[in-house]
């Protein structure tokens, strides 16, 4: 039986823009696993109540339910050990750092750049929830958070180590992409799906890596629906 | 025969403050290898001309000479495979990221904080060289670089992913320190040896990790001579 994954969607159901869900999409593609993706929205808490919590991704594999993108990586490596995502103990310890690097170094700058794009993409029924939870977590209004030039400048600084690594290698994990690449790339898919903003200049080694990542596994990233592909979807 | 390492020293020969040499000191201690450390100064290019380049660390192991801290890690793992520093291919690919993280994300903020301390510690014969090379590389005078509050603020932001990882684990490499820890910790030893500046508040998980790192391998870091230990060494 194919796997099932509950995945965040927007006001157009084709828009799938959670960075955490994108990590798992790439991880599943890496392992060549079939999966049914079930669109889900922020306020549909009952639909995933069976998982014991209220966020996606939620992966269902027969009798087993797994939540949290990193825990899903671990689960997939345990149950489907071919083509490991995380590797042995040392490799996995180091993979954890990429989780924090993407969530704590890259995400804040990206969020300041795309927060109003995110708000535009969220389903109307979810907008109040989105605004309330984000404003509470960050202690300011969405409109105050929105500061693309500050966001891009913070992102530019935070990208330095990624840039260094990608000047010497095609992927963070070496000659082929692996768990570390997927862990970080989710946040670039987040921005790509909801926004027309250019996060990285095309002379940047990070840009070339993004292009390579988009083409991996049959173009799983490249083929994703973006707000800019939807007629009338993007203001301006 | 014991290994030999040429190591940067300051105006007091006991001061050993190169972040790259500290990486190797820790790596050697990790493997339990004996080593004679030969003090060396920036302008003593002839003393290491046999290595084909002009920087330390230079490791000499019998007939073999190895330069560059990361290449020395690789060499040590090849020749002394017990207690690996870098691990298998995936683990090593990820270890590279810590090199760039420390050099490109952490070092700039630390440098802005300690640059005049460094200048004070450098041997008088090396000061002109130090000033000229650093000012050329960074495009401004040492005095302009010196901006501790800006440096500490940049460092604070750059530490976020480290903080996240060290909230959940004692070391970057898990339950015991490894190559990733040494790669990053070198820059904290750099600051510790030359400066009295507190880079990290004592409530920070990074602070607790620094304390643990100082105590590793018989206190190799804790026992290092600091400028503040030298009578009359520290202005103010």
UniProtKB/TrEMBL annotation, chains A, B:
InterPro entries: Glutathione-S-Trfase_C-like (IPR010987), Glutathione-S-Trfase_C_sf (IPR036282), Glutathione_S-Trfase (IPR040079), Glutathione_S-Trfase_N (IPR004045), GST_Omega/HSP26 (IPR050983), GST_UstS-like_C (IPR054416), Thioredoxin-like_sf (IPR036249)
Highest taxon of the lineage: Bacteria
Record-annotated GST C-terminal domain positions: 88-234
Keyword set includes DNA repair: no
GO MF annotations, alphabetized: glutathione dehydrogenase (ascorbate) activity; glutathione transferase activity
Any one of the GO BP annotations: glutathione metabolic process
Record's GO cellular component terms: cytoplasm
Domain GST N-terminal: 8-84
Key words, A-Z: Transferase
Pfam family, one: GST_N_3
ATP-binding is among the record's keywords: no
Name of the molecule in the record: Glutathione S-transferase
Organism: Chromohalobacter japonicus
């Amino acid at each position: 039986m194919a796997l099932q994954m509950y995945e965040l969607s927007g006001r157009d159901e084709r828009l799938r823009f959670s960075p955490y869900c994108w990590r798992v999409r790439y991880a599943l593609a890496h392992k060549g696993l079939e999966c049914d993706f079930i669109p889900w929205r922020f306020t549909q808490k009952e639909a995933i109540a069976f998982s014991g919590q209220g966020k996606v991704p939620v992966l269902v594999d027969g009798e087993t339910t797994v939540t949290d993108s990193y825990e899903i990586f671990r689960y997939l490596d345990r149950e489907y050990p071919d083509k490991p995502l995380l590797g042995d103990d040392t490799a996995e310890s180091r993979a954890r750092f990429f989780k924090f690097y993407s969530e704590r170094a890259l995400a804040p700058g990206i969020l300041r750049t795309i927060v109003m794009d995110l708000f535009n993409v969220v389903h109307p029924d979810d907008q109040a929830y989105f605004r309330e939870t984000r404003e509470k977590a960050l202690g300011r209004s969405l409109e105050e958070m929105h500061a693309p030039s500050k966001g891009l400048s913070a992102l530019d600084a935070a990208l330095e180590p990624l840039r260094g690594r990608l000047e010497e290698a095609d992927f963070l994990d070496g000659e082929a992409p692996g768990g570390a690449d997927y862990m970080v790339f989710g946040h670039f898919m987040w921005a790509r799906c909801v926004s027309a903003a250019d996060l990285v200049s095309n002379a940047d080694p990070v840009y070339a890596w993004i292009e390579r990542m988009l083409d991996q596994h049959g173009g799983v990233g490249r083929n994703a629906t973006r707000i800019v592909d939807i007629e009338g979807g993007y203001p301006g």
